[in-house]
């Protein structure tokens, strides 16, 4: 398996949805090594890379996207399509190339972070998928 969908507790009311991915996974996995946020306009692609040393966690704040992954060693590809499910958290395994495409009409926002019990540099290697 190139990636794992992680179920998050959703706090939802008439105002919208609230998620707290950090409380739900930090105790098990370690400390945040690096954190960044990105946007993808309609049709935009981000990623096309992999990480040698760390798993990457991506929280999707938008509904319609395509995630394509490829295990670097086996070249096995997996895809995930999301339509209508806001607030998905996906863990990308180390040495798995990944690319995200916004297939919705509105801007997609993603929050990306890495967890580690030992501080290591986040190394990124380019790998074209989309």
Write a structural description.
The longest helix has 9 residues, at 21-29. The chain contains 1 helix and 12 strands, in the order βββαβββββββββ. The strands form 3 sheets. Strands 1-9-6-11-4 form a 5-stranded antiparallel β-sheet. The protein has a 5-stranded antiparallel β-sheet with strand order 8-7-10-5-12, with no helix packed on it. With 130 residues, the chain is mainly beta. It is globular, with a radius of gyration of 14 Å.
Poorly predicted ranges: none
Secondary-structure arrangement, i.e. CATH architecture = Sandwich
Given helix and strand content, the structural type is: mainly beta
Mean pLDDT: 88
The fraction of residues in strands falls at over 45%
Outline of the structure:
The chain has 130 residues and is mainly β. It is built from one helix and twelve strands; from the N terminus they run βββαβββββββββ.
Topology:
Elements: E1 3-6, E2 11-13, E3 16-18, H1 21-29, E4 31-40, E5 45-51, E6 56-61, E7 65-71, E8 77-82, E9 88-92, E10 96-102, E11 108-116, E12 124-126
Antiparallel strand pairs: 1-9, 2-3, 4-11, 5-10, 5-12, 6-9, 6-11, 7-8, 7-10
